[in-house]
């Protein structure tokens, strides 16, 4: 709580009347709304001033003796969690002489009635002005609040849209990066697998070719060896058969020769014996 001090003071003296209006404003924080405080103080000041004038005129016209009216008004306004307290202290005193003639009484009564009518008109005008001021202030406050709310909503919507756009862009970028990385990894894996398969196939083909060549060579060698062996065996057999045939033929020839010789000898001996 702090004390702003005496806001305004109004003093006037007329025909023994004294009006003192003191307005004190207290607030919880120094950042209270100046517009609200000023409007509240002006409205209360005008209303109280009218009440003071009315009370003074009525008291002076209705009674010839001196009168003192003391009014204390306390207005508490809560605005935006700030407390505004307006204290109005009024002292109205009036005095007049009791000795007067009948003619002066009648003239004073006529003047008091005219003053009353003028006071009523003044009160009506002041009340209308106060109501208009209050309505204008309320409309201004409502417009300001609506504008502030609209601005806040627009700012919030813009911030939300920006955040959503940023999030969408980030998500799209992340998805694109992930897709690119996955595609690159898949391509690399496919290339590596193809290379490995090609290398393995080439190695297998080479091994198969080598094995086939070796087998063919071995088969050829075996065939050649077999052929050579067969040829050798055939040659040996042929030679042996030829030799056997030659021997047999020679033996037959020898036997025939021997038989012929023996037969010749026998025949010769037979011939000789005869």
Topology:
Blueprint (H helix, E strand, L loop, with lengths): L1 E13 L2 E11 L6 H29 L4 E13 L2 E13 L7 H172 L1
Antiparallel strand pairs: 1-2, 2-4, 3-4
Protein name: ABC transmembrane type-1 domain-containing protein
Keywords: Membrane, Transmembrane, Transmembrane helix
Architecture overview:
It contains two helices and four strands, in the order ββαββα. The chain is of the alpha+beta class. 73% of the residues lie in helices and 18% in strands. A four-stranded antiparallel sheet has the order 1-2-4-3, covered by helices on one side. Helix 1 runs antiparallel to helix 2. This is ABC transmembrane type-1 domain-containing protein. It comes from Dreissena polymorpha.
List keywords for this structure.
single chain; 274 residues; alpha+beta; 2 domains; 4-stranded antiparallel sheet; rod-shaped; transmembrane helix; transmembrane; membrane; ABC transmembrane type-1 domain-containing protein
Tally the helices: 2
**Gyration radius, rounded:** 73 Å
Mean pLDDT: 71
Oligomer: single chain
Biggest sheet: strands, sense, closure? 4 strands, antiparallel
Q: What is the helix/strand order?
A: EEHEEH
Label the structural class. Answer: alpha+beta
Note the beta-strand portion.
Answer: 15-25%
Find the count of extended strands (DSSP E, 2+ residues). 4
- Measured between the Cα atoms of the first and last residue, the distance is 196 Å
What's the helical proportion of residues? over 70%
Largest sheet, spatial ordering of strands? 1-2-4-3
Low-confidence stretches: 1-32, 64-69, 77-82, 91-106
């Amino acid at each position: 709580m702090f004390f702003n001090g005496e806001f305004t003071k109004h003093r006037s003296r007329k025909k023994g009347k004294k009006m003192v209006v003191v307005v004190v404003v207290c607030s919880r924080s120094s950042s209270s709304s100046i517009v609200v405080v000023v409007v509240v103080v002006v409205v209360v000041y005008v209303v109280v001033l009218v009440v003071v004038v009315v009370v003074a005129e009525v008291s002076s016209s209705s009674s010839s003796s001196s009168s003192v009216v003391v009014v204390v008004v306390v207005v508490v306004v809560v605005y935006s969690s700030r407390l505004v307290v307006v204290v109005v202290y009024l002292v109205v005193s009036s005095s007049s002489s009791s000795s007067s003639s009948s003619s002066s009484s009648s003239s004073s009564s006529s003047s008091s009635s005219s003053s009353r009518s003028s006071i009523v008109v003044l009160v009506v005008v002041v009340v209308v002005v106060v109501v208009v001021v209050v309505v204008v202030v309320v409309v201004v406050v409502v417009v300001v609040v609506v504008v502030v709310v609209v601005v806040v909503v627009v700012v919030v919507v813009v911030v939300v849209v920006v955040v959503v756009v940023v999030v969408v862009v980030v998500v799209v970028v992340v998805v694109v990066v992930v897709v690119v990385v996955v595609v690159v990894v898949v391509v690399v894996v496919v290339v590596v697998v193809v290379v490995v398969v090609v290398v393995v196939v080439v190695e297998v083909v080479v091994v198969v070719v080598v094995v086939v060549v070796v087998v063919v060579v071995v088969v050829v060698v075996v065939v050649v060896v077999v052929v050579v062996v067969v040829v050798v065996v055939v040659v040996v057999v042929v030679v042996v058969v030829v030799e056997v045939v030659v021997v047999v033929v020679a033996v037959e020839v020898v036997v025939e020769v021997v038989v012929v010789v023996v037969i010749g000898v026998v025949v010769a001996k037979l011939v000789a014996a005869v």
